[in-house]
Amino acid sequence: MARRVTAAHHRNDQETPVISEYRQSDAEREPDGSGEDHAQDRARAARELGDALRELVQAAAGTEVDAATLRKTADQARDLVGPLTEASRTRHVPPTLDEAKPGRRMYNPASGPGNPIAPPMRVRVADGVATGTCTLGLAYEGPHSYTHGGISAMLVDQILGHAHAAQGRPGMTVSLSLRYRRPVPLETPLRLTAWVPEDSITDRRTGPKATITTEDEPDRLLVEASGIFVIPTAEQAERIFGDNPPPRWSEK
Ligand SMILES: CCCCCCCC(=O)SCCNC(=O)CCNC(=O)[C@H](O)C(C)(C)COP(=O)(O)OP(=O)(O)OC[C@H]1O[C@@H](n2cnc3c(N)ncnc32)[C@H](O)[C@@H]1OP(=O)(O)O
């Protein structure tokens, strides 16, 4: 019998105490501090759309309806595209929502609440330790009822990146290694933890480590990972990103 999956499984909307990425920025506040200006409202709307599309994606990955219903829904989904593309950006232009708030990545595929393919993982950083929480639905399935290994790798890459960034400046992954010890269950609250060993830090490079466990059994390791993150030089950033490299990497 088909399993019914509800949206509640996939919305990671539990409140977490320290999430620096999506707090309202000065740039989004009204001069009088009321904070209900256009950019803030648009950010909230982007999150609402992300949530709604996540619900749709999860329903699509779990549905057992007949072909006629699938086709009708496909037509309806196509109709949704037009209005969104009336104003859109190219790959070389950052989202205006991110520009309104430095450090925000609204459409990050691992943690961006506006991106329907993101679980999204909620990230907190405290004392150099990055902690990510999320619950993955059927859209992330690899082996039956467990998470696809590539999804674990994406989430680990992101959380390692936060641990690296906590040392000073964000970097880029140059190496990523995972040991899949046990399968990562779907529809189960997960915890990712990442930190940077002192002896792995140089001027431009760190070698952070990470684990994935369930929230309920934080001592039972499902995945162990390590990475190497490098802060690109200004020249490398220019080569990669062109005339307008991200400010964090443009310092000569
Ligand atoms: C908070 C936000 C979190 C975000 C997390 C998500 C991060 C990502 O997904 S990034 C996307 C994936 N990564 C990429 O696309 C990067 C592609 N790689 C590159 O463009 C280049 O490798 C680049 C520019 C980063 C570095 O240039 P490259 O010429 O390779 O390195 P180079 O400048 O010579 O070396 C830098 C340091 O790293 C070391 N290093 C480079 N590669 C490796 C490696 N594979 N293993 C070990 N050390 C390495 C070098 O030895 C050197 O160390 P040191 O400074 O101590 O001598």
Automatic annotation (TrEMBL):
The keyword Isomerase does not apply. It catalyses: (5Z,8Z,11Z,14Z)-eicosatetraenoyl-CoA + H2O = (5Z,8Z,11Z,14Z)-eicosatetraenoate + CoA + H(+); decanoyl-CoA + H2O = decanoate + CoA + H(+); tetradecanoyl-CoA + H2O = tetradecanoate + CoA + H(+); dodecanoyl-CoA + H2O = dodecanoate + CoA + H(+). InterPro entries: HotDog_dom_sf (IPR029069), THEM4/THEM5_acyl-CoA_thioest (IPR052365), Thioestr_dom (IPR006683). Residues 23-47 have a biased composition (Basic and acidic residues). It is a peripheral membrane protein. It is found in: Cell projection, Ruffle membrane; Cytoplasm; Membrane. It comes from the Bacteria. Its main location: membrane. Its EC number is 3.1.2.2. Residues 1-47 are annotated as: Disordered. Belongs to the THEM4/THEM5 thioesterase family. This is Acyl-coenzyme A thioesterase THEM4. It comes from Saccharopolyspora gregorii.
